[in-house]
Amino acid sequence: MSGIAIMTSGGDAAGMNPAIKAAVDHARQLGMNPYVVYDGLEGLIDGKIKEATRELTSDMIYRGGTLLRSSRSKRFFDYEFRRQAYEHLKERNIDKLIIMGGDGSFRALNDFFNDFEVPFAGIPATIDNDIAGTDYCLGVDTAQNVILDCIDSVRDTARSHHRAFVIETMGRDCGYLAMTTALCSAADICIVPEIPYDLESIYKRLQPVINEEGSCIIAVVAEGTRVAQYLTRWLTERAGMDTRLTVLGHVQRGGSPTARDRLMGTRFATRAVEALNNGDINQIMVYHD
Ligand code: F6P
Questions:
Q1: Which of 95, 108, 217, 266 could bridge to 164 as Cys pair (CB 3.0-4.6 Å)?
Q2: What is the pTM of this model?
Q3: Catalytic annotation on 289?
Q4: What residues form DSSP beta bridges with 94?
Q5: What does the DSSP assignment read for 3-37?
Q6: pLDDT digits (tens, 9 = 90+) for 249-261
């Protein structure tokens, strides 16, 4: 029986576990032998590959992160390590791969295909929502909801002290998380790498809010702008607000996947298995709003 191996790579994202479960279940339904690879591309090189039992996937749908664990592999750039990975697959008769991750992971498996002709299907998974060709990547909805919970909590304390808060979100060079959560939390300021801004015009717009009794200012800033500390000082000095900075960090990557991430994980994964089963090789699953 032909084997298909499922793996996660790069930064973890909520929704990976539901997608792993759906891929394993669907592969089995279509008569394939499903395997899982632990520790991403590093694990592929080291042969950390196991048959996917029902027990493995039975309790994973509500868990955050990836139970297969992940890695950002430098060794996979080296042909000799890729060959080692190929030997591990050949031993087990695995001739198809599903990878969840970002552009770097897809490129790595494209190189692998060029070397050894093992076809793959890619599932976009990153909280940054920055993969070309798809409007949605796994993990985004869960991260947005985690961020919104944090902003709502910060707003409680900000209002209690008539303070300004600068909240830095992740997203690497992409402002999607910051922009969407700023909208959903009715933030007063949002700064993202993609859009130029002018602090003086922001100041003019906010003056009535600053002077209002019991008000607070919420600024959401994408990490890619690198201005969180500067903005905190500026709000203190120019706007005269007692200002604090909250860097949300990796808390944004955790948490139980939301219904949307469970559904999208299931949809991406079943399509990925079907693509490989139909002989559509090296396709990245995409979603359009
Ligand atoms: O790509 C996902 C992401 O969480 C980015 O938003 C962030 O810049 C980066 O990964 C953090 O990487 P690491 O987990 O290696 O610190």
A1: 217
A2: 0.97
A3: no
A4: 3
A5: EEEEEE-SS--TTHHHHHHHHHHHHHHTT-EEEEE
A6: 999 999 999 999 9
pLDDT tens-digit profile of 110-144? 999 999 999 999 999 999 999 999 999 999 999 99
Tokens 């002290």 locate to 161
Q: For the sheet containing 49-51, what is the strand order?
A: 49-51, 33-37, 3-8, 94-101, 120-124, 283-284
Q: Is the Cβ–Cβ distance between 202 and 170 less than 8 Å? A: no
| Helix/strand/coil for 138 | strand
Amino acid, res. 228? A
How far, in Å, is the centroid of ligand 1 from the Cα of 1?
38
Cα–Cα distance, 22 to 120 (Å, whole number): 16
Residue located via tokens 């793959």 = 120
Contacts (Cβ under 8 Å, ≥6 apart) of 62: 17, 256, 257
Q: Tokens 């490129």: give the residue.
A: 107
Mutate to test the pocket of ligand 1, among 16, 106, 128, 140 (most ligand atoms within 8 A of CB): 128
SS3 211: helix
Ligand 1: which residues within 6 Å by Cβ?
Answer: 11, 126-128, 170-172, 223, 253
Which of 172, 182, 145 lies closest to 261 in space, CA to CA?
A: 145
Q: What is the dihedral of CA 67, 72, 77, 80, to 10 degrees?
A: -50
Q: What is the rounded distance in angstroms from the CA atom of residue 240 to the CA atom of residue 124?
A: 43
Q: Could you give the 3-state DSSP secondary structure of residue 246?
A: strand
Q: Are strands 33-37 and 49-51 parallel, antiparallel or unpaired?
A: antiparallel
